[in-house]
């Protein structure tokens, strides 16, 4: 495909802050945007050229989206892949990243099998359907181990530690007996992430690593570029490129990593989309992750991912958004708010990036 | 007034690229935006939360805007000031900058009288209604002199050189006999501009100077921060602050300057709004001009106007926008397109900013 010219329309499945920032990047590049979201008053709708308010499996709405958009992307991986594939891809709509990436990323068992097949390091794990599977897994992996639903977990939801043998039944009950995976505990010293992109032409571009701090399963802050050894940086880049190529991927991919005491890396999970831990690129890189994603899916050359500043990205969660006054008065701070009306606990309301010279 | 909280609504009169970039800045700060524009498919509407398509003197539409918006601003100065004042200000709507700034900036005779009263240097001039006024002016100011309509000139439109005595009648005819001013020729060596802001609290912030190159009356490129002597920089800053204070101004003000061979400055004209020659701030300053304008009109503290990079901003005019492929492939270039469907000659379709370390 040749590059989509300015004036083309980008379709986005999902109306949250990631969709919002994708629409803004699309506008800057001269694209129209159309968002499909079930939310009546979504963050993305406030900046999109058009919005279709409908469920993700509303076949008519998907068909309308396919008719309007020259390329379609998504802001989160927990979409129903079947309607996306059947309605969009079968109608000849261009969906990027492909539904293959969606299917891999939305099922932890599929994801881990793919990661292993791609030859990247992952924590040892087992697939779980019954309490007996949990007990057998504990025996093999050791306790404690982390039980995670195969589907629909995010921000620390859908997971529970199994601390000792005999707790399998209770742990599965806590996850409503959904299909799960049991992961060996990883004694990591630090959480890192690498955001990378692959273009239609197969070119890849990898952003500098970010160091992430989570609390209660939610990302609190990212420090970037992360201070890592050249070997760790190179290993992370190699993992990202291997995964991009293994999925024949087009767009931005996020890879969450655990760094072990010896500097070795384990892949925790991947997200086939722009990612919270890449928000710092908006204020501190030549090309930000949203623009890079648009460039990739629209067949443009990738931009330079080089950092032009050092950044600390802090998520504003729930009522923390009320601190906007403090950040507005901080000359180092660049504030990004998402236009959400209600500051519910745990809800990502905005972020702030503090920037210093490299 | 205390600072408007995120979630408040900013009204924008005007739907062009400046309105578009104001709406995007509003979104980033968590504000809703509503645009009033006569254009059915405007650049700003593509990113605004809401759009009212109506004439600027449509009293019902202005009343609706006043009801929706917590603060109202404008993207260009050639608005009918009377309805804005009568409908908006009399209804208690907060209009920033005030209609006083609008009235001063939209009439060259008023503007020059204000500039003189503020004690800033301007070219000698005379007010013109008849051909006899032109001839008298030529005698006093010397030929050639520049005849400009008092109202509605922009991008070099509405002005004509009067080269010799006796040409007054033809020159006025070329401007359709509209009221005008005749300006003495200024032997400038360089065109500069200074973009500055004043907050509700009276604080001011001045961006580094830009050096501007025009062709056929249209801005082609801005180099910034301009290489000027410390004295010239200080003089420009003093002019900007004097004008902001003289107008009791709130928002971003642009001041176009001529630099003479000895480094002295002459004020050419002012614009009570964000300005094309300040677009470079989007990619190369801690706070960009659009965000600064929003901060000011919403009662927030002003942000730092410091440059973090050196920039060259190039306007993409008419079919030059077709060069987007070249700029997309240039790793130094940050491309901004305006979503205009038709590339008419002379129409500003987008801009590109090339960025280097300071």
At the fold tier of CATH, the topology name of the largest domain in chain A is D-amino Acid Aminotransferase, Chain A, domain 1
The H-and-E topology of chain A, N to C, reads as: EHEEHEHHHEHEEHEEEEEHEEHHEHEE
How many helical stretches of chain A?
11
Structural class by sheet pairing and helices of chain A: alpha+beta
Give the strand content of chain A.
25-35%
Measured as a percent range, the helix fraction of chain A is 25-40%
CATH homologous superfamily annotation of the largest domain in chain A? ATP-grasp fold, B domain
Spatial separation of the terminal alpha carbons of chain A: 37 Å
How many domains make up the 3D coordinates of chain A?
3
Identify the quaternary structure here.
homodimer
CATH architecture of the largest domain in chain A: 2-Layer Sandwich
What can be said about the biggest beta sheet of chain A? 9 strands, antiparallel
CATH class of the largest domain in chain A: Alpha Beta
Report the radius of gyration of chain A as a whole number of Å: 20 Å
Low-confidence stretches of chain A: none
How many beta-strand elements of chain A? Answer: 17
- Biggest protein-protein contact in the assembly: A-B, 42 and 42 residues
Return the average pLDDT of chain A rounded to an integer: 94
Overall outline of chain A:
globular
């Amino acid at each position: 495909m040749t590059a989509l010219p300015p004036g083309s329309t980008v379709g986005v499945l999902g109306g949250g802050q990631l969709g919002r920032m994708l629409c803004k990047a699309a506008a800057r590049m001269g694209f129209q945007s159309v968002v499909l979201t079930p939310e009546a008053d979504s963050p993305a709708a406030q900046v999109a050229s058009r919005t279709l308010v409908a469920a993700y499996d509303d076949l008519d709405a998907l068909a309308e989206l396919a008719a309007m958009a020259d390329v379609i992307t998504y802001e989160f991986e927990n979409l129903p892949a079947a309607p996306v594939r059947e309605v969009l891809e079968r109608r000849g709509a261009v969906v990027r990243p492909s539904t293959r990436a969606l299917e891999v990323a939305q099922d932890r068992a599929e994801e881990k099998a793919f990661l292993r097949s791609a030859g990247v390091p992952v924590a040892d794990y087992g697939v779980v359907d019954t309490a007996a599977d949990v007990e057998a897994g504990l025996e093999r992996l050791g306790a404690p181990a982390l039980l995670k639903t195969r589907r629909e977990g995010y921000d620390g939801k859908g997971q529970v530690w199994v601390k000792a043998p005999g707790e399998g039944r209770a742990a599965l009950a806590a996850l409503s007996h959904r299909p799960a995976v049991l992961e060996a505990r990883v004694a990591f010293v630090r959480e890192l992430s690498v955001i990378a992109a692959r273009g239609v032409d197969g070119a890849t571009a990898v952003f500098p690593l970010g160091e992430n701090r989570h609390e209660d399963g939610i990302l609190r802050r990212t420090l970037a570029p992360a201070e890592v050894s050249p070997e760790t940086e190179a290993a992370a880049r190699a993992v990202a490129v291997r995964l991009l190529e293994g999925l024949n991927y087009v767009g931005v991919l996020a890879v969450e990593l655990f760094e072990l005491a010896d500097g070795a890396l384990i892949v925790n999970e991947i997200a086939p989309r722009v990612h919270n831990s890449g928000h710092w690129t908006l204020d501190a890189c030549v090309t930000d992750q949203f623009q890079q994603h648009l460039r990739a899916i629209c067949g443009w050359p990738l931009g330079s991912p080089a950092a032009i500043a050092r950044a600390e990205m802090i998520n504003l969660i729930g009522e923390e958004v009320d601190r906007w006054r403090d950040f507005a008065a901080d000359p180092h701070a660049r504030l990004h708010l998402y236009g959400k009306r209600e500051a519910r606990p745990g809800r990502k309301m905005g972020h702030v990036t503090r920037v210093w010279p490299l």
